[in-house]
Design brief:
Layout (H helix, E strand, L loop, with lengths): L4 H8 L3 E5 L25 H4 L2 H6 L1 H11 L9 H11 L3 E5 L5 H4 L7 E3 L2 E8 L5 E2 L1 H6 L10 E5 L8 H13 L2 E5 L20 E6 L10 E4 L2 H6 L5
Parallel strand pairs: 1-2, 1-7, 2-3, 7-8, 8-9
Antiparallel strand pairs: 4-5, 4-6
GO molecular function, one term: NAD+ binding
InterPro entries: DHS-like_NAD/FAD-binding_dom, NAD-dep_sirtuin_deacylases, Sirtuin, Sirtuin_cat_small_dom_sf, Ssirtuin_cat_dom
EC number: 2.3.1.286
């Protein structure tokens, strides 16, 4: 058994919640958002380009931005996704992720224990007729071939709300957890960052992140490379 602080916490916990952000997927070749080399760096109005207003008023601008910046269909899960997935399959963890890249699901996570809080870029539908389409269809044309409606991914844009079912599942998992692991997130985007407030009072909180983030007063900060940390975690 590898003796690391993270491994020790995960080994002894019975009900784990992983709260994950874009930093979990950088090792898979997908840029994060707010680091100096992230998606938002040196970009004008990124929040507008990913907003409901942009989708409605300038759908072509919205489409071109998403197509150029957010889709990485060849990206593969890394060791962080894989180790977290193993804990869900062992019925010991729930993953609540900000990520819309689908990599937690690709890693084989138990889908009943995966909350894609902001949706998934690869779930797409026509706003006019409601029919679903593949991402390959979407990347070829923003208009639905059948009815001419504008296609969109089923993700939460700026100005849009979180789906109630996802919120309920997240809050239930947090209320029952004895360990909450925050990983790869700046933890400044709400309502996701506010989820930590709904954890069980008895739950331990640990963050694995390259940069120090704000945690509850009793939280444990492991500052470093999450890939290296999770590589040393024993399978459940």
């Amino acid at each position: 058994m590898v003796m690391t602080q993270l491994n020790d916490l995960l080994t002894t916990a019975k009900r784990i919640v992983f709260l994950t952000g874009a930093g979990v997927s950088t090792a898979s070749g997908i840029p994060d958002y707010r680091s100096k080399n992230g998606l938002y760096a040196n970009k004008r109005r990124p929040e507008y380009l990913l907003s409901h207003t942009c989708l409605v008023k300038e759908p072509e601008v919205f489409y071109e931005y998403l197509k150029a910046n957010l889709y990485y269909p060849k990206a593969k899960p890394n060791i962080i996704h894989e180790k977290m997935a193993a804990f869900t399959k062992a019925k010991r963890a729930t993953i609540i992720t900000q990520n819309i890249d689908g990599l937690h699901a690709k890693a084989g996570s138990d889908l009943e224990r995966l909350v894609e809080f902001h949706g998934n870029l690869y779930d797409l539908y026509c706003q006019k007729c409601g029919q679903t389409v593949t991402y390959k269809t979407y990347l070829k044309n923003m208009y639905h071939q059948d009815c001419g409606g504008i296609l969109r991914p089923d993700v939460v844009l700026y100005e849009e709300g979180i789906k109630q079912a996802r919120l309920n599942q997240a809050l239930t998992a947090l209320s029952q957890a004895d360990l909450v692991v925050v990983c790869g997130t700046s933890f400044v985007v709400y309502p996701f960052a506010g989820l930590i407030q709904y954890r069980s009072p008895k739950a331990k909180v640990v963050a694995v992140n390259k940069e120090v983030i704000s945690l509850p007063s009793d939280g444990i900060m492991i500052q470093g490379d999450a890939v290296k940390e999770f590589a040393q975690v024993d399978n459940p």
